[in-house]
Design goal:
This protein has 207 residues and is an all-alpha fold. The protein is built from 10 helices and no strands. Helix 2 (23-42) crosses helix 5 (66-89), helix 5 (66-89) packs across helix 6 (95-112) and helix 5 crosses helix 7.
């Protein structure tokens, strides 16, 4: 027999401690925002949890520790930058197109949100002493090398030179980013972009 009390009973709740749907994504997004605003030095699990509208236990449930959530954020930041670079070099057929497409893509990222590359370089510094972050960034850079190397080969660059060309472009792009962060988008920096692209073309063409 059904009683009034039992018919009015609230629906059963989920199991205690079960994380809400989307909590991991909210925490990760919150970690990235804290990184962009305060850097690694200013990031704490408490700040990430507060921004995500969660508690520290939930951060630990999904990521285990500060290092865990930071390494996940490093992967997310790297994937965002990689996606921009891939769009920038899509359809590139010449060495010049590959180099300028890569640089232009990073320029667009800097113009959209300069804090993103700042956070990336902050994490690069952290990676010197943090194995998890170093591993995450190594994966991302490995992907860049793979894509650029394949594009250089398709553009006719000898296989023996694609590795060096890829390292050169990645190192130069990172240097350009640091120059932008320090001094802004100056005329000298834009001239250096063009000079670099021409220099790579000349070096790889053997002139």
């Amino acid at each position: 027999m059904t009683t009034a009390a039992s018919s009015d009973r609230a629906p059963a709740r989920g199991r205690p401690g079960r994380p809400p749907t989307g909590a991991r994504e909210r925490i990760l997004a919150a970690c990235i925002e804290v990184l962009k605003e305060e850097g690694y030095a200013g990031l704490t699990v408490a700040k990430v949890a507060a921004r995500a509208g969660a508690n520290k236990a939930l951060v630990a449930y999904h990521f285990g520790s500060k290092q865990g959530v930071v390494s996940a954020a490093a992967r997310e930041l790297g994937e965002t930058i990689t996606a921009d670079v891939l769009r920038g070099v899509e359809g590139a057929r010449t060495v010049h197109d590959i180099v300028t497409g890569t640089i232009d893509a990073v320029w667009g990222l800097l113009e959209r949100d300069e804090r993103l590359p700042r956070a990336y370089f902050d994490l690069n510094a952290v990676s010197v002493v943090d194995d998890e972050v170093r591993g995450a960034l190594r994966q991302i850079k490995g992907r860049w090398r793979e894509v650029l190397g394949e594009l250089f080969r398709e553009a006719g660059v000898p296989a023996a030179r694609t590795g060096a060309a890829t390292v050169l472009v990645i190192a130069a792009v990172e240097g350009f980013c640091l120059e932008w962060i320090e001094r802004g988008d100056t005329a000298e920096l834009n001239a250096a972009r063009e000079f670099f692209a021409d220099s790579v073309v000349n070096a790889l063409s053997g002139t």
